[in-house]
TrEMBL record:
Pfam families: Retrotrans_gag (PF03732)
Source organism of the structure: Vitis vinifera (Grape)
Domain of life per record: Eukaryota
Entry-linked InterPro entries: Retrotrans_gag_dom
Residue ranges occupied by any Retrotransposon gag domain in the UniProt entry: 33-126
Protein name, per record: Retrotransposon gag domain-containing protein
Length: 147
């Protein structure tokens, strides 16, 4: 499970649950009841080792699951990738932006404020990209208020 993306696992699970949701059934309860059936190996052992009734809702379940399977070194590596972002040689703006957004989406729990994410992206841009951006927004990009 270490090489897999726990967020992708949860997202896929939620999609399956939503597809089978019955009219009056609570989606939260349904997810709690179905989750054990999609786990295997280490993840199944982990779930069975939890104290009975220690997980009361899907938010608790997701938090515990990610704490266990989205390891700290993986989180730290992804956070470094975000904070040390830089444009590659001959990379177009839209390619650079897509790559940056992929890094952010790979670690939704990064904890960075929006202004800091914008700053990391801007700092990693080439001089020519910064110049184009400043021209497009009519002045100093970093002094603009994001709305």
């Amino acid at each position: 499970m270490e090489s897999e993306n726990p967020y992708a696992h949860i997202k896929e699970f939620e999609e399956v649950c939503n597809a089978f949701r019955e009219g009056g059934a609570s989606i939260d309860l349904m997810r709690l009841k179905l989750f054990p059936f999609i786990l295997k190996d280490k993840a199944k052992i982990w779930l069975n080792s939890l104290r009975p009734r220690s997980i009361r809702n899907c938010i608790d379940l997701q938090a515990e699951f990610l704490k266990k399977f989205f390891l700290t070194h993986r989180t730290n590596g992804l956070k470094r990738q975000i904070s040390n972002f830089s444009v590659k040689e001959n990379e177009k703006f839209h390619e650079c932006w897509e790559r940056y957004m992929e890094a952010i989406n790979a670690c939704p729990h990064h904890g960075f404020d929006t202004w800091l994410l914008v700053s990391y992206f801007y700092d990693g841009m080439s001089s020519s990209m910064k110049q184009i951006l400043e021209t497009m927004c009519g002045g100093d990009f970093m002094s603009k208020n994001p709305k």
